[in-house]
Hints:
The structure holds 3 protein chains of 3 kinds.
Chain A: H1 9-71, H2 74-82, E1 87-97, E2 100-110, H3 124-205
Antiparallel strand pairs in A: 1-2
Helix pairs in contact in A: 1-3
Chain B: H1 2-8, H2 14-51, H3 56-64, H4 68-84, H5 92-129, H6 134-161
Helix pairs in contact in B: 2-3, 2-4, 2-5, 3-5, 4-5, 4-6, 5-6
Chain C: H1 7-17, H2 23-31, H3 35-42, H4 56-74, H5 79-97, H6 112-121, H7 129-137, H8 145-161, H9 167-189, H10 194-200, H11 209-216, H12 220-228, H13 240-244, H14 246-260, H15 272-296, H16 301-307
Helix pairs in contact in C: 3-15, 4-15, 5-6, 5-8, 7-8, 8-9, 9-14, 15-16
Amino acid sequence: MEIRVNPTRMELTRLKKRLAVAVRGHKLLKDKLDELMKNFFDLVEENRRLRERVEAELALANGGFAMARAIMSREVLEAAIITSRGRAVLEAKTQSRMNVEVPVFKLAMEQANGYGFGLTETSGELDEAVRSLAETFASLVQLAQVEKTVELMAAEIERTRRRVNALEHVLIPQLREKAKFITMKLDENERGNLTRLMKVKEMVRQ
Amino acid sequence: MNANAAGLFVGVDWGLTLAYLGAAIAVVLSGYGSARGVATAGQAAAGVVTEDPSKYGKTIILTALPGSQGIYGFVIGMLIFLKLQGKASIPISAGWSLLAAGIPIGIVGLLSALWQGRVAAAGIGIVAKRPEEASKGLVYAGMVETYAILSLVISFFLLNNVTL
Amino acid sequence: MAYTDYAYAVGRIRALEIGLIPDNLLERLMSVASAQEALQVLAETEYGAVAHDGDYETLIEDELLRVYQLLQELAPASEAIKVFRFRWDLHNIKLLAAGGNGKPSRLGNFPWEVLWEMLNRADYSRLPVEFQTVLNQFQEAESSSAAQLDQAYYSYGKRVLCAKEGILRDYWLARLDLTNLRLLVRLRKVGAPLEDFVKFMVAHGLIAQKEWLEVYGAPWEAVVAWLGYKPYHSIARDGVASLTDLPVLEREIDNYLLERLDRAKWVALGVEPLIAYLLAKETEAKNLRLILAGKSNRLSTETVKRRLRRGYI
Lengths: 206, 164, 313
């Protein structure tokens, strides 16, 4: 590898300073990476748990609706769903977590209680199905939040790891190399000077 | 007015009139009852046969059963008529007796035929749902017939007791 | 004797009652593997003429429509049959009141277009008087409009069916009370306040409104105990568990109501056997839908069996 650098003492001091900064940066980034990784695994674990829960809840809600479907006629069930006047408000904000902007969702739901279609023609099984679906919806929103966070964290980890690697495997060795080169060059010059001096001294003595 | 009204009845043989009235009551009331009874049972039977024509044979007896009162009334009416045949005039007391003889079969025939029509309609329900038990419906309808027969018998005895 | 003995109609209904699906056929339907096979089994019954493709919902609807039309043909003057058919008009009116979306039912007394026209022109003169009152009150679709329409329907039924003593009066009074009971359990289970219950409650049957309001806040045990003194004690005979388990409660209520009409089997002349047949058919439709939907959604036989209603034979 060809090293293009001014082999001066000033340059060497500058390089050493840079090296010190790089090493400290590397250490800090490495710490951050460790922390990120720890966080990430927690999040992944939470994500997995939530996903399992959502899947179970969805299966339950689906079962509930299949049951409601079996108990009520198609018209009644459809009408009850279409005329239902339940409301849901989703508030989306962001929050800084380990210097990563992650989303935060807040869900507010209003139970409809059959206001659109009345309760005499529908079956009580619909209530249960609707309730379990509403619960599932809340979990789904939570899952979305966690999943997005995991994604953003993963990107951040990737970036940090690249920086750490760049520092560790490229910048720091390079700086070390350069410093070594300058030192060697300077030593070489020193030795050359010494030899020259010794030569001059001998010539003067003769 | 009074004289006119009285004039209307001049020369009326009250004995015969009362006797005819007895015959009319026996025939008309029981006939009306039977007609209604058969109509009810017949409609029910028609309903069943609409859905299941093979039940026709089983419904026919039940449908005809309320018709018997009309026949009883007719018999009593006929007997009263036969008794009066060739008589130019009968005593008023005999007329009253013949009227009384016509009443039992008239009234009981009317009511029993109406009710028997309902029982027969119900029996036709049995034919529709459980053809194998159809004869039981016949028995129930027949029980109503008992009272028509009893009144027929009484009407008959009363009639026979009248000597002209 | 007025000429309303329905002798012909009852005769026909008696003959038709043989065609009702018996319990053992329901068992057989449950034991087959798929909805398709179940439909094939059904093809051997009255449904045969229409049981061709896999759409059981249309099949059931066609059959109900046939029954409604037959009954109205048999007893054109009977207001009672109109009341029972009116539940589908109620369905359509609710849809119209909510903006006209959704699939209308074709089972009602009035065709959808006619109802639409009526509500558009605000001309309710052909509807029962209870509906006229409620619809005239509507400014626009309110949150409780559907509940008010339900109440109008039940009051309409009460006016027509409870006018004179008899099986139909007993039936409707029980239906009013049990509808209120069902509302009570459902609303309490979703944690609705008392005001909501008041808003949904239909006209009272044998149990006065005051009693319902008092019992709404009581613990379940107290509700069961209270119900024990009512004619409906058999419904919660297994205590709190059977009262709060909605599928079981609804099944018990349906069974109880159909049992009220068992006496119609003894009625030789009158409109009662017609109504009983109609409700028997509706129950049968419910059972068939349950089994067929259960088959196509792969619900377990146990789940389906738990909800099967008792037949009327």
